Structure prediction request, 161 residues.
Amino acid sequence: MENYTMEGRTYRYYGQGAPLYPFGYGLSYTTFGYRDLVLSPPVLPVCANLSVSVVLENTGQRDGEEVVQLYLRWEQSSVPVPRWQLVAFRRVAVPAGRETKLSFEVGAEQRATWAQDWHLEPGTFTLFAGGQQPEQQTRAPSAVLSSRFTVTGAARPLRGC
Prediction:
C-alpha cells in the first residue's frame, strides 16, 4: 500500500454522506440536556492545551448513563483532515433530575495534522460537546453544543512543543 490517505476509505473523510450507525449511536431510557460549554482560554498559543467544561443534566424520569463526546473540527487546514475528530469521551451516570459538571483537557497533540510529520497549525477550530456526533440525526434528541477557539503563533512540528 502506497497511498496512506484515508480520503474515500472511511466516513470521517467522505463528503456530506452520514454513516448508518455512527459512533455513539443508540437509545437510552431517559433524556439528557447539555449547557454551559466553556472553552478556556478561547485564544491559545499553538503548543497549549485547551480546558473544556460542560454541564450534563438528566432531564428524564429515570437514572441513566450518557457517553459525553467531544469532537474537534479544523475550520481550515493546509492538509486534508476529517470533518471532525473525536478527541475525548466519558461515560457518566446521572440520577434522574440531577446534573453534573464535567471537565476535559484537549491536548495540543489532538490538533496535530500529518504532512510527512506531525505538526501544529494556527487557525480557528470548533469544539462540539454532546451525546452524539455533530449533525447526527437520531430518534432520541441529544443537543450538541459548539464553541470556537483560536490558536495563535507560527506552525511548528509537534515534537518542537
User: Anything to note?
Assistant: The first strand starts at residue 32 and ends at 40. The chain has a mean pLDDT of 86. The radius of gyration is 17 Å.
